[in-house]
Write a structure and sequence with these properties.
The protein is α/β, with parallel strands linked by helices and 233 residues long. The protein has a single domain, classed as Metallo-dependent phosphatases (Purple Acid Phosphatase, chain A, domain 2). It has 8 helices and 10 strands. The termini are far apart.
Length: 233
Amino acid sequence: MRIAIISDIHSNLEALTEALKVIDEKKVDLIYCLGDIVGYGASPNECVDLVRKNAAEVVMGNHDMAAIDPVQADYFTKPGKIAAEWTHKTLTKDNLDFLMRLSYKREDGTCTLAHASPKDPHDWQYVLSPEIAREQFPHFKTPLCFIGHTHVPVVAGEDLKTFDFKKNMRFIINVGSVGQPRDGNPKLSFGLFDTHEWSYENIRIEYDIKGAAEKIKAAGLPSVLAGRLFQGL
């Protein structure tokens, strides 16, 4: 079985559409979404609609939570908070209800899914160091745990010395961000896991950044949210 794992779409329809096109070309069996479907970008309803239609499993992200209740965005940067408030007003009732029903963590027997981390997934902890990564492994029982949140793709084995995916070791894998990469590479990012071959690949693809940026500006959202797409920051 081939599983595509997408995360951190952030209302970027141009990136999501391109990702789904490539996923279809690769004959993927299932799509899992690790949250932050909305926030920052200008197409929240379109992105939620596509995730609802295509994803077999979806978990809650912190920007999804903030879109439900903008008070949850109090710790965001000013542009992020403005976008959360705008998203809350823009989402349809059906799509808000969908986000409200999402859980923080899911398992399928092979994979654990969480937006930020398997340990206290509702606290939105960033897994950015070996020390923090080490704390995560006791909090999932499956061979693999897929996360997002940092927008930076990383593969980390349980020994914290192995960074290339292989058999006979448990891994935490950050699939990066579809809609707002932050590793200095503006190409969209998602993961592709093959359960039969027991292989993992990080997919990077160009998309219509200009179109996504123009929509952000046209919606009256902060221009910094458009500019950062070109830089992968």
